[in-house]
Amino acid sequence: MRVAADREVCIGSGNCVFTANDVFDQDDDEGLVVLLTAEVGPRDADAVRDAVAHCPSGALRIIED
Ligand code: SF4
Prior knowledge:
The chain has helices at 15-19, 42-54; strands at residues 2-5, 24-26, 33-35, 60-63. By secondary structure, it is α+β, with helices and mostly antiparallel strands. The chain has one domain (2-63): 2-Layer Sandwich (Alpha-Beta Plaits), CATH 3.30.70.20. The strands form 2 sheets. The protein has a two-stranded antiparallel sheet with strand order 1-4. It has a two-stranded antiparallel sheet with strand order 2-3. The termini are close together.
């Protein structure tokens, strides 16, 4: 599966980084989400689904293969 992040929608809460820090980071300037990888392996899949479900702004989206 893949994940997409919309930086126009992100409010920089950091929840996703806390939940899946191998996949998400925040930039130093505005704290907006940065995808470390768009491809999500099995090891990170549950954490990424959790991050997507709990993103307060709805900036994250799963793209199933
Ligand atoms: S959880 Fe959502 S709003 Fe918060 S930093 Fe991640 S993408 Fe942005």
